[in-house]
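As the next step, I needed to go through one protein, both as residues and as discrete backbone shape codes, included below for the reader:
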Amino acid sequence: MTERVALYLQDSHDLRDGLEYAKYAEEKGFEAVWQAESRLVRDAIVPMAGYAAVTNRIKVGSGVINNWTRNIGLLAATFLTLDDLAPNRIICGIGAWWDPLAKNVGIDRKKPLLAMRETIEVMRRLLNMERVTFHGEFHHVDGIELDVVHGRREPRNVPIMIGATGDLMMEMTGEISDGCVLNYCVPPEYNDKAIELLEKGAKKSGRTLEDIDRPQLIVCSVDEDHDKAIEYTKELLCQYLAQQPHIAKASGVSQDVINDIQSILGWPATKEQINKAKHLVPDELVHKITASGTPAEAHAKVAEYTKRGCTCPILYPVGGNFKLLIDTFAQS
């Protein structure tokens, strides 16, 4: 392999097709396949188990689950189970979630930094097969451990990576995690400040930036027809900009554009609403924050992210031809 590259899957395809994409990505030399868990549409764990079961080498990551909705004991047991299925191939990507979705399902995301810090500490100790007593503000456990009677009792090699967006979370990620899942729908120059914050956090725990892996989600629409690729991306962006304010803020898009799109899109958004709103997404925004266009154009844009600190592009295929994207970035 000449470079690291990974595949990101969400919900626009049949779930069984995702198994085929994971196998095809492995065949083409991809390092990992990551499963999204964002809107209330498809959880990450079930597809991850499927990908792990039908592959032999490729790593399987959650990109990303949240740290609010799964009890800490169950969370650790879930990743122990995945590691049983695919030893040393599982990655836990975890994030602080986002409003208004979290609020709409009854989650009060207070003190997100402390909540994440506690989650990482307790989960890491459990996966290290320790017996844990911990009383924090968000997690309270008494003498628990992963109760393996039949199977491997050794500590599990499951890297924990935080999907950070805000400055304080980014800095803490450098301090306490194995890596950062850098966000998508941001321009390459977004990485400059993110790298500074990760390095600052790493120094707090006696590490360097090189100790922090930095895979990055990148929206990637590849088509031999440049205009078709751009059109596919607009369908995706109008939904993200309307529904995920943390991504809209990080992307640098104007509030006027967001307001116009929000005036059309409901939640859940319908196909009709997306088709009506997508024209509001400027072409220049597509080129600024995604890798969209012909295979050569997509390659060139992805390279901009790696030049600015991304260690492994996690490519989010937009449009119907997932295998074209995999072929475009094939490593074998």
Summary: The chain has 14 helices and twelve strands.
